[in-house]
Structure formats: structure tokens, C-alpha cells
Amino acid sequence: MTISADTVSIGTLAPEEKRRISVRLSAGMSGVGLLTLGAFLVYASPEQWQIGEMVRGLAAAVVGVPTLISGVRGVVTGDTRRATDQLVAIAILASAATGDFVTATLIPLFLELGRLFEERSSLGARSAIDGIRALAARRASLLRNGFEEQVDPNTLRPEDEILVRPGERIAVDGTVLEGRSAVDQSAITGESLYQDVGPGSPVFAGTVALDGLLKVQVRGIGSDTVLGRVVQLLAEVELASVPVLRLFERRAGVWLPVVLTIAATTLFFTESLSRAIAVLVVSAPTALVVAGPAAVVAAMSVATRFRILIKSADFFERASDIDTLILDKTGTVTVGAPTVTKIEPESGISEEHLIQVAASCGFGSLHPASRAVVSEALKRGIRSTPPKDLQEKPGLGVLARVEGQQAALGRKTLLEELGIHVGVGDEDVSQVWVAHGGRCLGRFVLRDEPRAEARDAITAMRKLGMSRIILLTGDRAAVAHEVGAALGVDQVIAEVLPAQKLEVVRSEQASGRTVMMVGDGINDAPALGGADIGVAIGAQLNEVALGGSDVALLGTDLERLPQMIGLADAFRRIISQNVWLAFGLSVVLIILAARGILDPLSGALAQSLSVFLVVANSARILRFGDSKSES
User: How sure is the predictor about 513, in pLDDT bands with cuts at 50, 70 and 90?
Assistant: First the structure.
């Protein structure tokens, strides 16, 4: 399957975006460099102070001119979104008028840093879509008039027939006509155990046939496949997302006319231009501009310490409002690989003998069920005999000669095909049967176990305000409900595909809930992107899940979830304090400037002090988690 560019706009940054970001970054770095050079010339060579001041002025111009232009456009067009730029422009001009080029440079620089921290980029969704495209098969083996032909998957039509060989990626959604194989469908369903397919079984584009030749009838290609619909859903989610308005910009539209009125009133009644300029200088929103970025930098540092990657500062605004937690099962709240949970030998068969024969059969197989049996043998210190004549039976299991007799490890169907009587087992669990010398020796029950810390993490999340917790999975209902009961979730929704996962998220949102989705696979990407907060989790994060998420946990420790929410709560408290602290200091400084107590230069110094206080308050976030043992 190939997903064309017509389906959705994809790729890396557009040339115009690259140019704009490069200009912004270059201007900022150039300004800092010129400011540093100017300071060096002023203090290292006092006789060249005029040159130093010229260099400082150039620094202010390089950094401030874009903001001045934006501010003027805001005045001309009446665009309230440029209110911050208008205030900063006034501050730049007022600072430059007093010769304070340091302040004139730093104010717009802080503004730009704030925007770089806070703006949400579309790169996440684009990298997610690119990651999905990497899963698509580039060629398909079409059967036509008895001959095989390599074709572009997009040229296929429903009812066409294709061949899929072991190790090949399936190019279409379809139905198996002939053959058997174990298929890795984890990218679509999220189930860690490989799916054994045979005639009549559905298969999906982007999945991989592991060990058997399949003849598949085409049902859907391109955007009509499950994988193609994932791409479309990601694109829709990205287009539907609306950036959160920043707190200061909502207030800046009121602040600007108030400041101008105060400055004009001061000039009218005192006839002192110095006082009016001082009012403009101290009313510069430097501390308010720094209030957000300073707190974000501190919070990001703490998040990094906890191995939490936060992709957008919008996360901090939304996290404290979350009341519903949706958890993917496989690989998120479970280990992600099957383990042996029960061993049931037949009458007269020792458990050790059953494990030994099974491990011999599974010794040369890569199937997860075989690896689970071999791991159980190694854990118990049971040595297995190397098998002879090992033969994989696609979709059924493994045959081998062990101690001179035929042995089998696999599905009940495999043993029945060999004419071996098999007892009654529980069909609602994952199990493999073992036979040796024409006799059934017993069975192994397998399960993807919940993570050790999962229940404690869910309990902690409830204490932080999660009133509803849902377990969501593409796995079988019986398995999902067993895991859900062990974790104490409120609802279990099983056997769902990616589009259905997004539907669950949207259904919860339509009920007035604020949703956080946690997942680790490609099948979770649309739901991660559609949730109010999407959290990707995994030691080696899936590129697609990461692209659709707002946050990534660099590891599988679910205890990071309550730490993440706790950090967001601390951030919200600090940012609120910062805003009111900066606003309150600005009011006090404006009063002092209007009364002539502060001149423009001392006003600039007072502004620097207010910035220091805001930064110091933000630094308190760095102490978050000090009382905990986690690092």
C-alpha cells in the first residue's frame, strides 16, 4: 500500500517555514552576540564607549525591528493578537530613548523565546504520518491469468488476488484465500501475540506475514485500508486542533491603552517628558513576557529529570483539567510480551518433562509463544535437548524430533492434525499445547502480565482528579477484562481498531469530559492526537505514536503519569503567581514613575529586578519531586 500526497499533506518543514524559523533564530543569536560585543567594548575599552553603544543599538535593532513592524501592523489593522508586540514595541522605543539598549534588546528576545517555547508545531503529526507511510508495502505480487506480476499496490482493485511470502509486508486489506501464517498485527490491533491466520481470516495493510505463504483477495487499498484511515484521521485531528490562547495576550489588549493613557496623563499634568518615558519603561511587559518561558524552562528541566518529554507548553495549561484517563492495554499497562502463567501437564506427566520437551521444540522458533516457553525453562534451570528436523507449521506451531521421537508445540489444531487426542482447554485464554511420541503432554497458559506499578499508578491518578479510567484495546475481550479487573479500571473496551479508539475518545469528549489518552503503538496514534492530551509511552518510542502525542514517557514506568500531572499542577500554581507578581510590580512601578520617584534609568533597573523575582519564583519548580526517591 502507498498513501499518496493527495491523501494528506505530509513531509518535513516547507521551505517558507524553514526560512521563517531560520530568520527568527538567526536574529536572536545575532542580537545576543552584538550585545555581548558591545558590553565588551564599553567595559574593556572605556575610550571606545561610543562604538560600544552603537553596537548595542545595532543589537536592539536586529532583535527589535521585527517586533516593531508587527506592533505597527497591529495598530494599523486593529489585530488584537498583536497586542503583545505593541507593548513590547513601546518598551523598545522607550528603552532606546533612554539609551538602555540592553533592555531594548532583551525585551523582544524574551518575547521570541516565549513564543518558541509555547507555540505548537505541526511537526508531530507530520512525522507520525511519515512513520505510517514507512509501514506501507511498496510492491505487491499480483496473480493474473496464472502468472505473478509485481505491481504498485495503488493499481490493485477489489477482488484482485495477491501472494504474500514469509517476511513480506501485506500491501492491502483483504481476506486469506489459501495458506496459513503467523502475522504480526501489533501495528494495527496492538496485540502483542502474533495472529495465526488461515482461509477466511482478515488481514490488514502494513502487517507482516512471518512464516507462511498466503494467497489474499483484495478488499481495500490506499486510503480504504485501516492504515490509510489512520493517516486521514491524524490529518483531521491536526486540522481540528486549536492552539490555547496565552494568558498574557488575553490581557495585553487592555493593558496597552491603560499604559498609554497613564503616560499621556502624566505628561499633561507634570509637563515632564522624563516621567512619561519612565512610565513607558516600567510598564514594559518584560516580567510578564518572562513569566511563561521562565516557568516552562524550569518545568521542562524537571520533566527531563523524570524522563518525560513534553512537546508543547500547552500541555501545562490543559493537564490540570483532565478528568478522564484512557489507557491502551498491550505494552502500556502490560509488559507487552507473553509469559507463562500456568503449566498443566496431563496425568502421569511431570511438569519438568513437559517444560523440557516444549523448550526443545521452541528452541529454534521466533514466535512469541515459543520464546515464552523457552524463557520459562531457563528461569527454572531446566535444560532442553537441541531439536532435530525443526519445522515451522505456519499458523499452527512447531514440529521437531526430540530424543528420537516427534514432538509438537502449538495450537490444539496442530495436535489434532497429527491424530493426537487433546483434552478440553479454556478457549478464552492464550495457550499452547505440547505433544511427544504421539501423546499429548499438557499445555501452557500464556498471558501478557500487567506491569508491577500499574495499579499503584492508577490509584495515584485517581487521587489527582481522574474520576473515570478506561482500558482500551484491540485485544480479545476475555483477556482485556481480566487485566481491567486486576487494575481496577472503571470500564474495559476491547476488540477495537484505530478509528474506533478515536471514536471512544471523541465520545468521552462529547460527554463534557477532558481526556488524556496513553498508548504506545501506531494503532493508538489517532486517539493520541484526538485526545486533549496524548501520552506516548515506551523505552523505544514508536515514531508514529510519538508524532501524534503531546507528551512522551521515555520508558515504561507508569509512575511517571502521576508525576507528570503533579508537575503540571505545580506549574499552574507558579505561572499564576508569576503573572500576578509581574502585574502587581508593574502597577507599583508605574505609580512610582508617574510620581517622579523613578526616572527612566532607575525604572529600567526596577524592571530588571521584577524580572529577577519572576525567574526566582519560577526556579521553585526545580524543587518538585525532591522528597521523592525517583530520579
Answer: very high
Q: How far is CA 489 from the centre of its chain?
A: 23
Q: What end-to-end distance do the CA atoms of the chain give, in Å?
A: 44
Tell me, yes or no, if 490 is annotated catalytic: no
pTM of model > 0.85 = no
Judged by DSSP in three states, 537 sits in strand
The answer to whether the beta carbons of residues 545 and 521 sit under 8 Å apart is yes
Band (pLDDT 50/70/90 cuts) for residue 116 is: low
User: Which residue spans within 210-266 are E strands per DSSP?
Assistant: 214-220
36-68 pLDDT, tens digit each: 888 788 777 777 777 888 888 888 888 888 878
- Grid coordinates representing 312 are 508543547
In DSSP notation, 117-143 reads: HHPPPSHHHHHHHHHHHHHS-S-EEEE
Which pLDDT belongs to residue 512? Answer: 92
CA–CA separation, 207 vs 338, rounded Å?
19
Q: Report residue 107 as a C-alpha cell.
A: 525585551
550, 525 contact by CB (below 8 A): no
3-state secondary structure 291-352: HHHHHHHHHHHHHHHCCEEECCCHHHHHHCCCCEEEEEHHHHHECCCCEEEEEEECCCCCHH
List phi, psi (to 5°) of 108.
Answer: -70, -30
Q: Three-class SS of residue 608?
A: helix
Range in 223-237, 261-275, 521-535 the model is least confident about: 223-237
Under DSSP, the state recorded for 246 is: P
CA-based torsion, 366, 371, 373, 377: positive or negative:
positive
Phi-psi category of residue 240: left, alpha or beta, with phi > 0 → left and psi -120 to 50 → alpha: alpha
Nearest to 219 by CA among 147, 166, 136, 157: 157
Q: Are 355 and 382 in contact (CB under 8 A)?
A: yes
Long-range CB pairs of 529-536 (<8 Å, 24+ gap) are: 529/125, 529/128, 529/233, 529/234, 529/237, 529/238, 529/241, 530/233, 530/237, 530/502, 530/505, 530/506, 531/326, 531/505, 532/318, 532/321, 532/322, 533/315, 533/318, 533/319, 533/322, 535/561, 535/564
Q: Which of 100, 173, 314, 328 is the catalytic position?
A: 328
Q: In 3-state terms, what secondary structure has residue 63? A: helix
Helix (H, G, I), strand (E, B) or coil at 193: coil
